[in-house]
Target: Exonuclease VII, large subunit
Amino acid sequence: MQGTELTYPIYSPGSIIGIFNNALKLPATVTLIYLKGRYSYGAGKAYVNYYYDFLYSESDNTSIGIKMPALLRSKIENNEIYTLRGFIEKRIKNSSIELVFVVDDIISQEEKSISENDLKRYDLIQKKLEKGSRDVETLIRNQVLQSEKVKIANIYGHSAIVQKDFNEGLDVSSKEYEIDDYTCNITSATSISDLLDRISPLNYDIIALVRGGGDKQSFEVFNDLVLAEKFVSLSSITVTALGHTVDETLLDKLADRRFHLPHEYGSGLHAIISKLTEEKSNSRALLIEEVKKDVSKQFVEQVTTLTDQLKKKNEEFAEAQKTFKENVEQQTKNFNEQLKVRNDEVEKLKKEITETHGKQVSTLTEQLTKKNQEFQRLQETSEKQVQDINKNFTEQQKQRQQEMETYKKEIAAFHEKNVQSAINEKTAALQANLESSKIENAQLNKELNNSKTDYTKLIAAFIIALVIGFVLAKVL
Model:
């Protein structure tokens, strides 16, 4: 083994990455391919006649870097859907292999349609327009003039280092503010939303989202609709300083004041205090005039900006209405054609049913005629039976009438006998009563004779006699 020395290949990290970079040879890297997605501007500057932008998937926020020739870039509109032709180029960046799509030609641009999310963004912007933007400078002036500190809550990322930039911009004006720093996962809409829920009841005058920049994809969190709705509903004045100057996120549009960089945010607050300090040395009338002028200028600028945004959204909405109307007309036309086909089928079915129904009616008519003949024969038989029954009933009724006459005669004779017997009994009773009356009358006459002056008894006897006579006359 002596004299034999083992050797090993030794590579540097750069050479290893280069080896793998050269080994990744796929059809997509050596032939032209087609790529479709939402085009988004990058840094905004050309490097050696190329722009470095991004192409996002339509269904999510996945993106790939785009190397776009300057001549073709002039034909591109930001945030529109394009189909591009080109090839994949591999790069080594920060110990990783990055894929970049080099554009050879623009194949087509897809007509922009208004999605449900676009309508929600429009509603949020409309809500902000109705609510109105509150002026940061006016708030700070009022607080300082009343010798009160302005309460500010700045929201940073967990590992952010931009607090230093903000403080440098604020400079000596920090004594006029009461500033609290909060941290969260600045790339998570849920984390930011939870933090806003926690600090919104603390009655801060200003709540600011502060970030020092970052990759294009990470800024999509500031277009989140749920976060934007909560952001626009805050009672505090809202400020954004997200560290980017090219694109404007939804939160930037909804904020009361937008700063591009954290240092600019701090400088803006410092400038307000410096301006106010300078104005304090002038007359009160001049101070009031300057305040009015600044407020009016900012108000006009904000109104102009919001009016332009609203006009653009109205044009998009009108286009969406036009598209919707065309779709409705097309659907109506299709429906009418289908309805015509169905009507033809119905007419055919009605014709078949009519023929079948005619045959059934003919059969039923024959059966009905036969039943009518049977019914007529039954009527004739029944009529004959009824005549026989009526004849027998008449004879029986005549016989019953004769029997009734005989019964009536017998009853009359019997009744006459009973009446005569009753009359005789009543007559005998009345005669007995008459005899008794006569006896009493005789006694009364006797007493009358005995007492001729007793006229009362005489009158009573006379009345009694009249009554008895009336009764007898009534009975007889």
About this structure: The chain has a mean pLDDT of 81. The radius of gyration is 61 Å. Residues 419-475 form one domain.
